[in-house]
Amino acid sequence: MWEFPGGKIEPGETPEEALRRELVEELLIDVEVGKKVVTTVYEYDFGVVTLTTFYCRLDEGEPTLTEHVAVRWLAVEELPSLEWAPADVPAIDKIRSDFRAVHA
Ligand SMILES: Nc1nc2c([nH]c(=O)n2[C@H]2C[C@H](O)[C@@H](COP(=O)(O)OP(=O)(O)OP(=O)(O)O)O2)c(=O)[nH]1
Fold first, then answer.
1. Closest protein CA for atom 17 of ligand 1
2. To which protein family does this belong (predicted)?
3. How large is the ipTM?
4. Which residues contact 43 (CB under 8 A, 6 or more apart)?
5. Minimum CA distance residue for ligand 1 atom 4
6. How far apart (Å, rounded) are the C-alpha atoms in residues 30 and 63?
7. 38 with 53: CB under 8 angstroms?
8. Is the CB of 25 under 6 A from ligand 1?
C-alpha cells in the first residue's frame, strides 16, 4: 500500500520538525511544513497509529529514494487511484475536499 513520506516523532521534536527531518532522510528534500491536513487514529493488528499529515512546500531538491521502493507525485484528482494505508484515507478525503473548496 501507499503511504505519505514521514515517520515517528523523536523525543524533543515537534511534529513539523520530525516531518522535515524524515523528508531529508527518506527523500533528500528540504520542505517548508505548512498547515495540518488532519490527525487520525487507526488501530492496526500491530498496534495503534496516530497519524498527522501536513501540507508542505518543496524548497530544495528532487525526491530521491533512499529507503523506499517507489515514489509518486500525484495531482489531487489522481490521489484516489492508489491503494492507501487505511490510516491515510481520511487525509486523502480532506485534501480532496480542501481542493474542491478552493476551486469551487
Ligand atoms: N510514514 C508514514 N507512516 C504511516 C502512514 N500511514 C500509516 O499508517 N503509517 C504507519 C506505518 C508505521 O507503522 C508508522 C510510521 O512508521 P515509519 O516506519 O514511517 O517511521 P520511521 O521512519 O520513524 O521508522 P523506524 O525508524 O521506526 O523504522 O505509521 C503514512 O502515510 N506515512
1. 7
2. Belongs to the Nudix hydrolase family.
3. 0.92
4. 49
5. 3
6. 9
7. yes
8. no
Is 92 near ligand 1, meaning CB less than 6 Å away? Answer: no
| Cα separation, 93 vs 27, whole angstroms | 24
Report which protein residue has its CA nearest ligand 1's atom 20: 7
**Domain positions in the chain:** 15-103
The string of pLDDT tens digits covering residues 2-17 is 999 999 999 999 999 9
CA gap 91, 94 in Å, rounded? 5
CB of 35 closer than 6 angstroms to any ligand 1 atom: no
CA–CA distance, 64 with 81 (Å, rounded to integer) = 22
Phi then psi dihedrals of residue 80, to 5 deg: -70, -10
CATH superfamily of 15-103: Nucleoside Triphosphate Pyrophosphohydrolase (3.90.79.10)
Three-state DSSP string of 52-90: EEEEEEEEECCCCCCCCCCCCCCCHHHHHHCCECHHHHH
